[in-house]
Specification:
globular; mainly alpha; 162 residues; 7 helices
């Protein structure tokens, strides 16, 4: 949980740094570094600023925030809880909603069954659907941030309203 969420946090930071670099035309990178050393030091703030700047949309913001909350729960409970723990139901539910929308956009309505079969073929056991939702959300979000980062590198604006 912690490693997966740190990849997402790093992806958000990369997108934000590129956005700021593009906005400042590459001038004074020290200011951007100071920003990340202070104000944008934590995952939640990076997610919030990425949303405000239009780098990510609202459903993506909610999904990333749910992953952040799950990561915090694991860190503070010293890994003594599972994704199926009732205290995480709210966040797992948000991830499921996010995934349902993503798969609906791709017209894959039987996505849960398909993904469980895919994991089984690769000898990965899904013991609980919470594991499935978390894993797939991380993969989807990481891909989303990777595309946003690429768009910034080629001089685009990230995702904006998308």
């Amino acid at each position: 949980m912690i490693i997966a969420s740190s990849f997402l946090e790093n992806g958000l930071e990369a997108c934000l740094r590129l956005k700021f670099k593009n906005e400042m035309n590459g001038e004074d990178s020290n200011i951007v570094n100071k920003l990340f050393d202070s104000t944008l030091r934590d995952f939640g703030r990076k997610n919030l600023i990425a949303r405000v700047l239009g780098i990510i949309n609202h459903p993506t913001y909610e999904a990333i925030d749910s992953i952040r909350e799950i990561r915090n729960a694991f860190a503070h409970e010293n890994f003594k809880i599972k994704l199926s723990h009732t205290s995480l139901n709210k966040y797992i539910g948000k991830l499921k909603d996010y995934l349902q929308q993503k798969y609906k956009e791709r017209e894959r309505l039987a996505w849960e069954k398909e993904e469980i079969e895919h994991f089984s073929k690769h000898k990965v056991s899904i013991t609980d659907k919470s594991d499935l939702y978390f894993s797939l959300a991380v993969v989807n979000l990481f891909g989303y941030l990777g595309v946003a980062e690429f768009n910034f590198k080629v001089g685009g604006k990230g995702f904006g309203q998308y």
